[in-house]
Design brief:
Layout (H helix, E strand, L loop, with lengths): L3 H15 L4 E6 L12 H5 L6 E5 L2 E5 L4 E5 L5 E4 L11 E7 L4 E5 L6 E5 L23 H8 L6 H5 L10 H11 L12 H23 L37 E5 L2 E5 L6
Antiparallel strand pairs: 1-6, 2-3, 3-4, 4-8, 5-7, 6-7, 9-10
Helix pairs in contact: 1-6, 3-6, 5-6
This protein binds zinc ion.
Length: 272
Amino acid sequence: MPELPEVEITKQGIEPFLVGQTIEKIVLRNLKLRWPIPKDLCKVLQGLEIRSIKRRAKYILIDCSAGWLIIHLGMSGSLRVLSSFHEAPTKHDHYDLYTANNTIIRYRDPRKFGALIWTASNPYDHRLIKHLGPEPMDEAFNRDFLYQKLRTRSSSIKLQIMNNQVVTGVGNIYANESLFHAGISPTRQAYKVTRPKLELLIVAIKTTLERAIRAGGSSLQDFYLTDGSTGYFQQQYMVYGRAGEPCHKCKAIIRSVAIGQRSSFYCPKCQK
Ligand SMILES: [Zn+2]
């Protein structure tokens, strides 16, 4: 699943191809993603100039001067720049965005949980975005904020850092990895995590995400994908997906436990 680093890399990947360009058209092959795509979107977009591209949580926001496209990659979506004008779409290629200078951005999404939304209003006021917590990289995401948020919450710390109203964009992989780096068990009740530990956790979240973005950025040339691969990048993880294998730090065996129906991985020695 694309997590925040993949979304940020996607944003950085399409940015140079789109900003300052005029939209020629959008070709919609499938109007049923997570929500129906408005049929008249092609008419709406035609001739609009793309001013900038932003990211908020896992949403890519494209400023089209008369309104905004809000894109979410869902469970399996990817956006890529077509390297050939003649590359035939497959059944999972749901839309193509054409610019007047012949760039085509293609959206592929086998599971169809992604979203393509048009809004003529401020996208930050959109119902999907308005109530989101702070960005993990922002200064607003700090120890005192997190302490206030969590001090009455008795569910697990892992569920809380994956809660978009506490902090946005920390998905399963990075929640697992950050908790390892902070030495906190994923099952620990949120209100019991001390302030110094919260400080460590915040640093771990920021550095884990930053490292992933850097790793993805170094493979940005792959943004021209011709082989149909998803555009996600593989990384080395400390605990994620490593149940039964030895901890890289202490050699204890990594365990897994289901929390909120998601697999959690942790080292029973390093994380308390
Ligand atoms: Zn360990």
